[in-house]
Amino acid sequence: MLDFLIAFVDDHLRLGLTGDEAQHLDEQMRHVREALPRIRSYSAIIMDRITPELAGREWYTLRCPDCLKWALLAEGGEVRCLFCEARWEAEAFVLPYAVEVLEHSWRDYRKTGPPTEDCPERGAHALIDEAYLAAAPEDARQYCFGCSTEFQGLESCMRCTRLSQPADGPTICNDCLGDLG
Q: CA distances (Å), 180 to each of 160, 162, 168, 172, 173, in order?
């Protein structure tokens, strides 16, 4: 019944709201969604429902910073939780992930900003050095939430300091190699 009511609010009631009303409902529903994982029977029902959608996507599945369930898909530049239905822009997701999932302090990033780097594949500023994927939950990975690519062993380019996949010899990114060429 709770699942039905939440879907009803999202699918029907929210559509008729605008401005402050919509913002107020979103804030209130965020509180509701944060409490949902503590309701065990509800949690089990939702996890049973979304498990088929998560199957085979373990390399794109992470813990959600809102509900802390292994139900967040970071795939194709889209970052969304199937359990609590939270959504983020890829570049904005890194900070909540670092603070809520990795348990880093907000203060760590107050002056420096989120712990992100530019992705060597697509250039999105959505690469994090420490991500844990459902496929290997004990192993930290370098992961780009913008292109959904897992990296290992990226190093700073000797010339511009952007991260790059090392090759034989000194690490130089493709852009710098093109400039030298």
A: 12, 16, 17, 10, 11
* Tokens describing residue 114: 């989120």
Helix (H) / strand (E) containing 155: strand 155-156
pLDDT tens figures, 121-166: 877 888 998 999 999 999 999 999 998 988 888 888 888 888 887 7
Which pLDDT tens digit goes with each residue over 79-133? 999 998 899 999 889 889 999 999 988 887 887 777 888 888 877 888 998 999 9
| The residue to which tokens 């603070």 are assigned | 99
> Which residues, other chains included, contact 37 with Cβ-Cβ below 8 Å and sequence gap of 6+?
43, 67, 68, 69, 83, 84
C-alpha torsion angle, residues 177, 178, 180, 181 (rounded to 10): 110
